[in-house]
Amino acid sequence: MAMTKQEREMHWRVLLEQQAGSGLSVRAWCAREAVSYAAFIYWRRRVAQPAVVAPLTLMRVDGGETAVGGLWLSVGGVRIEVKPGFDAGLLKQVVAALVS
């Protein structure tokens, strides 16, 4: 059975910790443990870097038909218009989906 994304990341975190505590260079440790050096480097970079999140831009709408308290926001290149009475829970789900 294939590992989930979280299981795969946890597996590589364990390997990274084992190498760090081994006292060996990355190449030597990978050779000893039969771990792909390229995969090790990839996962070391991936795990070390926080997820990149697109900047969130909020702007009040000052004119036009949405001037009654509406606003729009841009997430990951997608523009979402929010009008009075919107479902806050749904908006939170949509933004979370766009960011992931």
Quick recap:
The protein is an alpha+beta fold. The protein has helices at residues 5-22, 26-33, 37-48, 88-99, and strands at residues 57-60, 71-75, 78-82.
Which regions are unreliable across 5 or more consecutive residues at pLDDT < 50? none
Beginning-to-end CA distance, first to last residue: 25 Å
SS summary, helix count: 4
Question: Cα-atom Rg, whole angstroms?
Answer: 22 Å
Oligomeric grouping of the chains: single chain
Helix-strand sequence? HHHEEEH
Main beta-sheet annotation: 3 strands, antiparallel
Strand order of the largest sheet: 1-2-3
Helicity, in percent?
40-55%
The share of residues in extended strands comes to 5-15%
How many structural domains in the coordinates?
A: 2
Give a count of the beta strands, DSSP E runs of length 2 or more.
3
Q: What general outline do the C-alpha atoms trace?
A: elongated
Structural class: alpha+beta
Protein name: Transposase
